[in-house]
TrEMBL record:
Pfam families: TrkH (PF02386). The chain crosses the membrane at residues 49-67, 79-101, 145-163, 195-222, 242-263, 279-300, 345-367, 403-423, 455-479. It is a multi-pass membrane protein. GO terms for molecular function: monoatomic cation transmembrane transporter activity. The keyword Cell inner membrane does not apply. GO terms for cellular component: plasma membrane. It comes from Halochromatium salexigens. One of its GO terms (biological process) is metal ion transport. Keywords: Cell membrane, Ion transport, Membrane, Transmembrane, Transmembrane helix, Transport. The keyword Ion transport applies. This is Trk-type K+ transporter membrane component.
């Protein structure tokens, strides 16, 4: 198809559809503002509680009338692909923006508050706050709460709670990476939400049983389930009991597994786990990362092997699941360890989980394609080979999507890294920070701080958003034909 022909087939996003869906998202965000507001008032943090309450009311006043917007024709209520992507990209941006004013109650400036909100909503875990051990518990809960609902995904919550149109709900979920097969969109979203809630309750109870106070258990468990990494301490996990660290690491692994997979356990049993290639790849990637980090710590840094293995396990889990917890300062690690961590963070966890990165399924697709290319060199030219992952055929559309994401990721990483270098930041630490932000991992090489140049803070904010929506959704928002192409024929 020629470019001219393609242009004639393009359809602009319809503002009533986009705004109507965003209006529903704003209603959900208003409801999500209630728990931290109540927590703030219970902790006598009246300024924070008031700001959250005003924000919730404002979201309702705007969201309710906007949610009533509809196309004029009844047969046009379904959502186009560019509209669904635009809604997803704008949803995370709006979710971060509406929390900027409340977070300024913690003493943050405007840019720092935006950074903190973006890091929370995207479950990244990079932070501008210091002195967390003495911080207001209400602020700490707000941070953990943002990561918790950001981990499940605002789109999933909206579909589960209030969206009724099946085709639109299905398309909105598909933009977040959800794989819908025989289930309706709303039923799928509700099952995933129930799994997430069950995992959260188990996490809070498990961390509490390791000896932490109830509030501390909550503040560590919520980010662990969201693979977010916000900790109520400047030292992250350092100083916690070994049982607590091990429990949190196991919870991060559980959260990096596809949530729909848990929903299938009652029907398929443990076979649903043992026959899942992404889960096997996740465990293998964690093991490889752990062994590499442990060997570097023991051989290059002279750390005793038991201590090196413990450190390697915690860091390996944190990087592979893109959680961001740590027991040591990443800036103090050898350059080799930092490179290993960057590779692990970039790959990430399973599709449909709360983990970030490019996702393991895409790595498996690339590996299978390479294997297929090698096999073709040793068989007859006319032989037909099919690339498969876990018994499922790799469709051409999957290959295209994988290569597209890898190219977009490379573009974002390179552009952001150049911005850091242009402002005189050290090369390796700059690359580490950019990779961590784009992978929504949250481990820091020491550059993320209130002293960082405001422009670079905004670069990292953009990276976190690009990583959370897998780049394309935000590019659709910025793409002029999304809004100015031809409209549907009436």
């Amino acid at each position: 198809m020629t470019e001219r022909a393609a242009n004639t087939l393009m359809r602009a996003a319809r503002l009533p559809v986009v705004l109507g869906t965003l209006g529903r998202l704003l209603i959900v965000l208003a409801a999500l503002s209630a728990p931290p507001a109540l927590a703030a008032w219970s902790q006598a943090s009246n300024a924070l509680g008031l700001r959250l309450a005003v924000t919730a009311v404002a979201l309702l006043l705007v969201g309710w009338p906007v949610s009533r917007l509809r196309p004029l024709r009844a047969d046009e209520h379904d959502i186009q692909w560019n509209e669904a992507l635009a809604v997803t990209g704008l949803a995370f941006l709006l979710a971060a923006l509406v929390m900027v004013w409340p977070l300024t109650a913690a003493g943050l400036g405007g840019v720092d508050a935006l950074f903190e909100a973006t890091s929370g909503i995207t479950t990244t875990g990079l932070t501008m706050l210091r002195g967390l051990d003495k911080a207001d518990p209400a602020v700490l809960f707000l941070r953990a709460w943002m990561q918790w609902y950001g981990g499940l995904g605002i789109a999933v919550l909206t579909v589960a709670l209030i969206m009724r149109h099946h085709a639109s709900a299905r398309r909105l979920l598909e933009t977040t990476g959800e794989q819908l097969t025989d289930a309706g969109a709303r039923g799928h979203a509700r099952r995933v939400s129930m799994v997430y809630l069950a995992l959260t309750v188990i996490a809070i109870g498990a961390v509490w049983m390791t000896g932490l106070a109830p509030m501390d258990a909550l503040l560590y468990a919520l980010p662990a389930v969201a693979t977010g990494g916000f900790a109520p301490s400047d030292q992250s996990l350092a100083g916690l009991p070994g049982a607590t660290i091990a429990t949190l690491s196991l919870l991060c692994i559980a959260a990096a597994v596809s949530l729909p997979l848990y929903a299938r356990l009652p029907h398929r049993g443990l076979r649903a786990l043992t026959h899942e290639p992404e889960l096997i790849a996740l465990l293998g990637a964690i093991l490889i990362t752990m062994l590499l980090l442990s060997a570097i710590a023991a051989l290059a840094s002279g750390l005793p092997w038991p201590q090196a293995l413990a450190q390697g396990f915690t860091l390996g889990v944190s990087a592979q699941t893109d959680t961001g917890f740590s027991t040591v300062a990443v800036a103090d690690l050898p350059a080799t360890s930092q490179v290993v961590l960057m590779g692990s963070m970039s790959i990430g966890g399973c599709t449909g989980s709360t983990a970030g990165g490019i996702k393991l399924i895409r790595l498996l697709i690339i590996i299978r394609l390479v294997q297929l290319a090698l096999r073709r060199t040793a068989i007859a030219e006319r032989a037909v080979l099919q690339a498969q992952v876990g018994g499922a055929r790799i469709e051409p559309s999957m290959v295209t999507a994988t290569l597209q994401l890898l190219a977009l990721w490379a573009m974002v990483l390179l552009t952001s890294w150049l911005a850091f270098l242009a402002l005189g930041q050290p090369p390796l630490a700059s690359l580490f920070e950019v990779v961590s932000a784009t992978a929504n991992a949250g481990l820091s090489a020491g550059l993320t701080s209130p002293e960082l140049h405001p422009a670079l803070k905004l670069v990292l904010c953009a990276d976190m958003l690009f990583g959370r929506v897998e780049v394309l959704a935000l590019l659709v928002v910025l793409y002029p034909p999304t809004w100015f192409a031809r409209k549907r024929n009436p």
